[in-house]
Amino acid sequence: MTQRWRLVLLIPAFLVLATAAAAIILGLPAFGHPLTHYGTAVNTLAPALRNVSNMVAAVNFDIRGIDTLGEESMLVCAVTATVILLRGHRGEDGSERAGLIPGRANAARSDGMVLMCRLFATVVFLFGVYVVLHGTITPGGGFQGGAIAASSFILLYVGGGYQPWRCVLHSPVVVGLEGFGALAFVLCAAVPLAFGYAALQNVLPLGTWKDLYSGGLMVIVNIAVGVAVTGSFGVLLIEFMEETRAPKGHDEKEGA
Amino acid sequence: MIWLIGFTLLLSAVSGALVVFSRDPKRQVYAICANGLVLALLFFVLQAPDVAFSEIAVGTVIVPLLFLITLAAVAMHKKPQ
Questions:
Q1: Is the dihedral of CA A114, A156, A116, B33 positive or negative?
Q2: Do B73 and A244 touch (CB under 8 A)?
Q3: What does the alpha-carbon distance between residue A160 and residue A114 come to, in Å, rounded to a whole number?
Q4: What are the φ/ψ torsions at residue A181 (nearest 5 degrees)?
Q5: Number of A:B CB contacts under 8 A?
Q6: How far apart are CA B68 and CA B21, in angstroms?
Q7: Contact B50 A144 (CB under 8 A)
Q8: What region does A15 belong to: left with phi over 0, alpha with psi -120 to 50, or beta?
């Protein structure tokens, strides 16, 4: 295909796409008036139907829970594919030390910084757990809390350096968290099915409004998502970080 | 309120432009960090604190770190000249 033909094709394609995009943009609700019919319906019905005060959680984990199951599977699949790609290319060998970029200084960390990072890592992790547990009451939920909890791992790395970080994180526990969270979500969908209800049907007692236990099955789904997201990000971080290990036998080569 | 929204929108445009116009990959990563922080602020101003949470954790912490690790791995495995 020559350049002229490409240009000739581009013009009608651009015209069609531009008119379609313009029609969609003009049809959007005005800025600052975001309440659609669906949103209004959820806002009026969900507090009475599900006893939760965070409508986003009600939509994500109950009313449209099956969509979230799909998203959760996509996250787990993406992380698994990354692990296969990186580990398959790298192999399991390599020393447990961090590698060095040639010509860059490698200063030791001060004790104060290590202490601060450990303290803040704990605080950030606890805050992530808090956000997960209060998912049905206040803004936040499984994904947000899981991502916050996983970012505390990075503070551990910043404070401790590569080796202690690897000791803590390079364990079957983090991988297990990812798989266990995803499995718990699938079970939440499958167990009601087995008893003749719809998938993800809220079969548990709903609890009290604005209580830590409110929303029935939503609480379990929310925690499952939080656990899975923490595990997924943890696995992702360790797999990426393993790329910066010193290759095995590096020392001998340096000495020779 | 409308001024706050306008200001954060302007900030996000400026920080987004910084990401595009910085040529050094490492500076670009830090620009992504700043852009993520501004976006989180914008989401917060637009009353979506849960989206702001995810944006802070993913956009300003995890994604830039993965980029930095990738850059470090590339620099480490580069053949010495």
A1: positive
A2: yes
A3: 6
A4: -60, -45
A5: 58
A6: 18
A7: yes
A8: alpha
Given CB atoms, is A125 within the 8 Å cutoff of chain B? no
Distance from B44 to chain A by nearest Cα, in Å? 11
- CA A149, A152, A153 angle in degrees (round to 5)? 105
Reduce the DSSP state of residue A132 to 3 states and report it: helix
Q: Tokens 């984990």 appear where?
A: A61
Residues of chain A contacting B73 with CB distance shorter than 8 Å: 243-244
Give, in order, the Cα–Cα distances in Å from B8 to each of A60, A81, A140, A170. 28, 37, 22, 40
**Candidate from A100, A139, A243 with C-beta closest to B50:** A139
A187-193: Cβ within 8 A, 24+ apart: A188/A217, A188/A220, A188/A221, A188/A224, A189/A65, A189/A66, A189/A69, A192/A217
Q: What's the ipTM? A: 0.87
Summarize pLDDT for B20-73 with one digit per residue, the tens: 999 999 999 999 999 999 999 999 998 889 999 999 999 999 999 999 999 988
